[in-house]
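REQUEST FORM: STRUCTURE PREDICTION
Request ID: SP-0412
Submitted by: Lab K.M.
Chain count: 1
Length (residues): 210
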Amino acid sequence: MIPLDSLLTFIAASVLLALAPGPDNLFVAAQSALYGARAGLIVTLGLCSGLIVHTSAVALGVAVVFQTSAIAFTLLKIAGALYLGWLAWQVFRAPVGESGAPQVPAMKAAALYRRGILMNVTNPKVSVFFLAFLPQFASPAQGPVALQVFQLGAWFMLSAFLVFSVIALTAGKLAQRLGHSAKVQRWLNRTAGLVFTLMALRLLSSSQIG
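STATUS: Completed
RESULT:
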């Protein structure tokens, strides 16, 4: 069992990491600004579900592949960058009506949830980060290491969910207050598209140890 003091330190570090500006919380903010707080919360669920994959990869030793194989790391990051580029293109070309409301149907919950999962799973940096971060708080003297890694991953997911939920609600509320004029909607679309583009470029330029 993980000692309480180590667990509390881990949770505090997880909250700080979730608060630090990064691809996931920026993604949540952008989705909330475009589609509302509910959409941001659903995307958050998807992102946290994606962390299950990365946690399992660390616990089962699969994450080592992305740390040691340049080909595997590069292929996954290209897939992630292409996905972000596709999202940016969709947002840039989204039509805006006279009232400012997008002339596209609201995204279904399942689509938003899948979007969050894909955003997280296609980022190999998360697996490499988890590989370096989670084992620091696990020890063979405390029981099976794999079980400890799963426990730590669950606490990280909970911490991230709480922080990202606050970001989603805040961004959604702010976007709502800005109104629904065509000018504001165009600004939101272009800003979100730029964010997705920069995230794609950042992912493409990332390295296994960077």
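NOTES: DSSP finds nine helices and no strands in the chain.
Reviewed by: T.R.
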